[in-house]
Amino acid sequence: MLHLTSLIVAFPLFSGLLLIALGNKVREPLAGWIATLAVALSFVTTVLVFTGVLGQKDGAPSTQHVFDWINVGGFHANLSLTADPLSITMCLFVTGISALIHLYSIGYMHGETYFRKFFIYLNLFVASMLLLVLGSNLLVTFLGWEGVGVCSYWLVSYYFDKDAAASAGKKAFIYNRLADVGFLLGTFLLWSQLHTITYSEMDFGSLSGLTATMAVLAFLFAAAGKSAQIPLFNWLPDAMEGPTPVSALIHAATMVTAGVYLLCRLHGLVHLSSTGQWVICGVGVATAFVAATIATSQTDIKKGLAFSTVSQIGYMVLAVGTGDYVAAMFLMVAHAFFKALLFLGSGSVIHALNGEQEMNRMGGLRKVLPWTYGTFLIGWLAIIGVPPFAGFWAKGSVLDAVFGKSPWLWALGLLTALLTAYYMSRLFYLTFTGQARFTEDGPNGEPGVAHPHESPWTMRLPLVILAVCSAFGGLLGLPFVHSFGLGKFLDPVFGTDLVTPTSSTTQQFVLSIADALVAIAGLSIAWVLWKGRSERPELTPKFLQQVWYWDNLYDNVLGKPGTKLAEYAAIGDALVLDGAVDGTAHAVRGLSSKLRAIHNGQVRSYSVGIVVGMVALLLYFLVVVA
Amino acid sequence: MHTFPYLSLLVLVPLIGAAIVGAIAKPAQAVAQKLGLGVAVLELGLGVALLVAFKRTGDFQFTSVHPWASSLGISWNLGVDGISLFLVAMTLLVVPIVLLGAQVKEHGAAFAAWVLVLEGAAVASFLSLDLMLFFIAFELTLVPSYFLIIRFGYERRNYAAVKFFVMTFLGSAFLLVGILVLAFKHQSQTGVLTFSLEALRHTNLSGGMGVWLSLAFLAAFAVKAPLFPLHTWSPTTYREAPTGGSMVLSAVLAKLGTYGILRFNLTLFPHASKVLAPLVLTLATIGILYGAIVASAQSDMKRLVAYSSLAQVGFIVLGTFTFTTVGLTGAVTMMVNHGIITAAFFMLIGWIAERRGGWDTGLLRGLQKPAPVLAGVFTLVMLASIGLPGLNGFVGEFLVLLGTFATHRWWGVTATFGVVVAAIYWLWNYQQVFHGKADAENAETPDLTRNERLIIAPLLVLIVFLGVFPKFMLDRIEPAVAKEVAAVVATESTSPSGTTLHSIAPSATRGGVQ
Fold first, then answer.
1. For site-directed labelling of B215, which of A206, A464, A622, B355 has its Cα 20 to 30 A away?
2. Is residue B391 a contact partner of residue B380, using CB atoms and an 8 Å limit?
3. In a domain, B427, yes or no
4. How many domains would you assign to chain B?
5. What are the residues whose beta carbons fall under 8 Å from the beta carbon of B282, sequence distance 6 or more?
6. A 41-70: CB under 8 A from B
7. Which residue segment(s) compose the domain that B452 sits in?
């Protein structure tokens, strides 16, 4: 089955190209169905390849060479795809969730002008994401890495005639491009030291400690861009300008986890640098905490979920820093389920309320949208870590690992978990419980919605499937179970680089109870504070609403000076450099005013002059010098 | 089979064609114009045949040597290798596209004739293995360029044409002196007066002499490329030239500069090139960042492409002075790809100008809605220029940076930041022009016509093909480049003693990069 690996990428790629080729001949909903079918086939293929990987002895990777790409002077980067437990774990949830979100989009994007284009972008995105994951070397990963970046740009700017959407798409792309500097420099550094960038051939052991640390930091910077971590996290909330299925697929479940995947893929490198690991931990925990505080004060449901995503990815990065890559992957998979569910649920709400995203114009949707409510409920319990839902087990295994690394980090992680439970509960109550606030007209004259409708089955089915996964996803990584699950499957990939928690059974038990209590506490605090209320300015300070003034800081420190620099440079180029040239020309013209007769403006005489001059020069050298 | 005189024909067909087109331009304008296009297509056919017949070795092929002005030591000496092959091919492709897509309203035959002269001269420059023949061809490109600007250009065409002419011509004066001094030096050592590249590369030069001669050559090439800070003619010239003129000037003529550096400076003065490397690398890196930063503040799209080209040329020169196979292959690849991309840009800007009467961002807004195909095509070209992997612009840029990082780390690190700024100015420009709500005038912008789509299609196909299968080019470029690199590296041991500058030349081969 392993020979099918390239088909996983081929299905969505060809479907995307087909939809481009067919042009406006395919319309709604056919375009959506073609795209969905392709991704579903990709998922089926992945399952087949997965059975192949299971059959491999010791999880040995299997590489498929597709074609030669760039081979020059000792540098080799071929387009090859590798199926191993890590890449196939990624492929399974990426294709699975993508297929569901494609299906959902058929309903959600109903009536949109650029329906076909939307599915082209979505297909190309999935193909790029799979390329990123399956690539056998850093450059193929980079190809996918950039591909998802461009698709994200297109999809965020989907409503391109809206300035905010256009700017958000651009911002996302530029932040990612900045992070690419890290990816490129890391690649250059590894190649100049190891003379290969193929994962299976890189022997990190020969790197000096300093080089390893520099490489880790470079790739961490790359990961921070793609996975929205400090200091590059603030593009993600803006990216919510894209249609909600895009937020669910790209900006929650798949693309934003690419940075974590990259660090897991480079585990051999990360493992070498303890400085690097501590920095990774620092970035992860700081992002998790900062984003969680911001999430407590958001009034837009999608923005709230976006900061929650940033925060959750912070946990994954933190897990990578501790060396427990399995915990990071576990949370990634579980998060993909429940965050996709939550975003799609929010999409269902927004769909029902004719595009309203402000939570103070929601409330009381429990009865109106029963399917959305029921599934969102499960997603909510899963993310805040109430047992026995997926988030409890996944976040538990991360916090376990963190406790082994440092109790201080663990304490901060637990505090963040409390914040998570609080802000998610607030979001849930504001949306679904209390008074219905959507029937009246909004403060800016938005018309109220008298009778919101539950979404069509194409949107409900994905919600139900994801809810089931969020409820039972914990089975992938139950503690004390070593005979099956993600840990056993991924073990051959990480081998001795994997740091597993050393805590005793009793300790683990106590830690788990602490996690559960924190979840209940957060949930209860939110209930007390937000019961029957939609606005509490004292609990949503401007500092948090304004994202710790992060955007303002960048704007003042980089944006404005950068613009000024460019303006001055442009003026300088015209005045100084060009002026010097023109000035010389004027001076010469002044001196030669007596020779004005020759400057008769006749082009022909200029060219004759040139030829004469050339011949004269030639003759001069021939006669005098020779 | 190999006696078929591909190269001489490639030089002569457009020149003779231009003469005929020019001669019948007055009596039969329309016929002459069609004939001009026919000649360009015939020439492209010859180029394709050459591409097919080309063998993947590092040597010069299809060489054609005939005594010409033998008393002066000048010979008709043409040859093609992997370095010149694709530059010639790119030239041959761009010219018919110019004649099809960027025709001028009046005097079309004269326009075609000048473009063909330019084509012949450029091809001759790329193929010349005789320095004097090269110089003549190199200078000959000036005449048609000048006329294309001054006869068919925009408002300030006189200023632009004279500036272009004077700056490049001044550079050339240094080149001529350099060539002559080198030839006479060679004559004094061997008793033979020749301008043959193969012979002159064995001239024994003292360290100081080599550096001065190298600088003389560099002066001409750096203006043409253009390399910072000698670029100031280019924004004005690209701005004022007609669409077709900007296309040929930036895609083809600018490459004469970067090609000249690679072919002549490195081959003739390997030692001096190493001595000058820190200076040139620094100028190239400044050019990358400076060009990108200044581009960010342009509202005039043609000037934006000019400054963007300054940055791209910086990458090309950077790769050239790494003296590694990776870096030089990247530089050659980038010359070709930049030609394709920039020709496409100027073509698209020309078409926008035809529709909207200008190409300033202040005039344009929300074009994606009325003209989605135009927007899509522009996006593809833009992403190629930004260096998106999978498109052609990435391959060269990546190899250049890789080679630079491995040999001159800090230049490589600094230059890598150039890729970020490229994304900033292009995306910002795209947002201004294509995103947002179109006002009444912009909302009526017609989309690309069928003909226009067909005309630009070859460039788009190449942008994708050469990004996905760069192997086609790389495999043919690499042997020639490897030979060049081996020659440069070999001079390390045989370099003339007594030069004090040698100590500051960086080790070119650190990290085992060959």
1. A622
2. yes
3. yes
4. 1
5. B411
6. 67-70
7. 6-512
